[in-house]
């Protein structure tokens, strides 16, 4: 009888991972799939437009960040520096923030090559708000 774990023979693993929803980290058939990013906070959460004009650094804290993760400022993707799988940094400039107001910040991770094996891959985080005074 099959137990409800992901530690099975290779033949049983595919069926069990699809039926039981085993996560990607335990399913070797998921290959290069990537977890969806999660964000929890921004640092700073408020900046002045003068700081933006000088090229302020924004830190996004969360989890499941990988080298392909991008910080989205409103709808503009920016290449981020991955400090760790829990922190990304990016320079914000007037090229992406044109003036004072609220700015939507999220993290996007493109999908890996997961195929159709019941593996999820990549996605977009929830949105946090950066206030620009």
Write the layout of secondary structure elements.
Layout: H1 10-20, E1 38-43, E2 46-47, H2 49-53, E3 56-63, E4 70-73, E5 76-79, E6 81-84, E7 87-92, E8 101-109, E9 123-124, E10 128-132
Parallel strand pairs: 2-10
Antiparallel strand pairs: 1-3, 3-7, 4-5, 4-8, 6-7, 8-9, 8-10
Q: Could you please describe the fold and organization of this structure?
A:
With 133 residues, the protein is mostly beta strands. The chain has helices spanning 10-20, 49-53; strands at 38-43, 46-47, 56-63, 70-73, 76-79, 81-84, 87-92, 101-109, 123-124, 128-132. The protein has two domains: 1-30, no CATH class; 31-132, Sandwich (Immunoglobulin-like), CATH 2.60.40. The strands form two sheets. Strands 2, 4, 5, 8, 9 and 10 form a six-stranded mixed β-sheet that branches. The protein has a four-stranded antiparallel β-sheet with strand order 1-3-7-6. Residues 1-26 have low confidence and may be disordered.
Index terms:
133 residues; mainly beta; Immunoglobulin-like; 2 domains; six-stranded mixed beta sheet; four-stranded antiparallel beta sheet; 2 helices; 38% strand; disordered N terminus
Q: Using the coordinates shown, work out and report the CATH topology of the largest domain.
A: Immunoglobulin-like
CATH architecture of the largest domain: Sandwich
The secondary-structure class comes to mainly beta
Topology as H/E string?
HEEHEEEEEEEE
CATH superfamily annotation of the largest domain:
Immunoglobulins
Q: Over all CA atoms, what is the radius of gyration?
A: 19 Å
How much strand content do the residues show? 35-45%
Largest sheet: 6 strands, mixed
The total beta strand count reads 10
Low-confidence stretches: 1-26
Shape: elongated
Mean pLDDT over the full residue set? 80
Q: What count of helical segments does DSSP give? A: 2
């Amino acid at each position: 009888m099959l137990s409800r774990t992901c530690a099975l023979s290779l033949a049983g693993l595919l069926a069990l991972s699809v039926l039981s929803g085993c996560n990607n980290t335990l399913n070797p058939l998921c290959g290069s799939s990537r977890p969806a990013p999660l964000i929890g906070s921004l640092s700073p959460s408020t900046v002045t437009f003068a700081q933006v004009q000088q090229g302020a650094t924004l830190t996004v804290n969360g989890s499941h960040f990988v080298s392909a993760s991008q910080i989205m400022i409103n709808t503009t993707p920016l290449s981020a520096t991955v400090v760790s799988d829990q922190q990304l940094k990016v320079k914000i400039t007037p090229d992406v923030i044109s003036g004072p107001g609220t700015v939507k910040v999220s993290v996007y991770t493109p999908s890996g090559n997961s195929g159709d094996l019941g593996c999820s891959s990549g996605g977009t985080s929830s949105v946090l708000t950066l206030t620009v005074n």
